[in-house]
Amino acid sequence: QQRLYHQLQLLPELRHVAIGGPPMSGTWTPPIYTDAASGRTLASYASPGYFATLGIPFLHGRDFTAIENRRGTPLAIVSKRTADFLWPNGDPIGKHFQLDMHFDGKLSEFEVIGVVADVRFASLSRVDPAHVYLNPAGAGLDPILVRASAGVLGAIRNAAAATDANLPQSLSVIGLEEGPLRRERVQAQLYAEFAALVAILAVT
User: What integer is the mean pLDDT of 107-117?
Assistant: First the structure.
């Protein structure tokens, strides 16, 4: 996945490339704690460039860096609602929170480096009440997300073949407008707030 990710970053046809959880693809809601507050939050992984790929604007702070991604530095970017809930009277940048990642009572601590706009990630029927985005290094097999104009499928498959000759046979390319967002529209009869993108699921 990492080799394909870097190969796709070289393609001029692709405007943005990232690794992370795609919208409307399920939820993960671990308990979240600070010294003054606790609750549940949506959580997902987001590589550098994830927010640009999905069109989610930064309100404060910064994105993850490639070095932090490689090292697995325990950093986080939070939504505005999350920041307002956990630190209503202070600047969230540099603050820490803990997550019960595996629902077993063992807490992992993260430092906040950025705040992004609230979005409808889990459902088009409501804005996420809380959402934290974590550094994805070694986290799992989230898909590669690309933001591009139409007609790039051939370039993507060529990049996959250059990475591994067998990879195109197990590569599934899903347009967000044709997949999860379409299902949500049928259920909720609402319009999406995310820019169109393509989610590439690489089976390894």
Answer: 97
